[in-house]
Amino acid sequence: MESVVGCHRNTHRISPNQIFLIINAANQVVSDGMPEEPGGGTGKKTITFICSTYQLDLDTIIQELAKQNINVEAAQTLQQAGEINRVGPEDIYQVIREISLR
Q1: What pLDDT, on a 0 to 100 scale, did the predictor assign at position 26?
Q2: Which of 16, 34, 49, 100 qualifies as a cystine partner to 45, CB 3.0-4.6 A?
Q3: Domain positions in the chain
Q4: Taking the complete model, does pTM exceed 0.85, yes or no?
Q5: For residues 63 and 77, is the Cβ–Cβ distance under 8 A?
Q6: Neighbouring residues of 60: CB distance < 8 A, sequence distance ≥ 6
Q7: Could you count the other beta carbons within 10 Å of the beta carbon of residue 21?
Q8: Any long-range contacts for 55-62 (C-beta under 8 Å, 24+ apart)?
Q9: Which of 12, 7, 41 is nearest to 25 (CA)?
Q10: How many angstroms separate the first and last alpha carbons of the chain?
């Protein structure tokens, strides 16, 4: 059994500064609820997850994306939606963010 003292070991080799930057980035949320930058792993998140996380109306987001010729399905990841629409997942994130600011 590992001692309490051993629990603080940094087995993933993350510096204290990196931990601070991760926490700080998570706290930098604009008034609309969506961070300005999508962050790591965004391409793996589904449209449904993004809408649920930031309290956005899923149907409205899908309709507004379609108006901009970005066709998505709720269960698609941003990566999948990006590949189908020939844009990057970050681009889809930014369009969703712009829609959420309206």
Answers
A1: 63
A2: 49
A3: 39-101
A4: no
A5: no
A6: 99
A7: 12
A8: 56/96, 56/99, 56/100, 60/99, 61/96, 61/99, 61/100
A9: 41
A10: 54
